[in-house]
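Would you mind writing out a protein's amino acid sequence and the numbers that encode its backbone to help me picture the idea?
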Amino acid sequence: MKYVCDICGWEYDENEGYADGGIAPGVKFEDLPDDFVCPLCGVSKDNFSPAE
């Protein structure tokens, strides 16, 4: 599943993870650390929505 930042459009793909942030492929969005922020604009997980 993919999640997109509502502010800037950056996308987190659970299948790919986020290597630059130390997040392995397969990590579910809800399992990201509570302090995870968008790497482009810095907003919290609350500002992400499932991608359509």
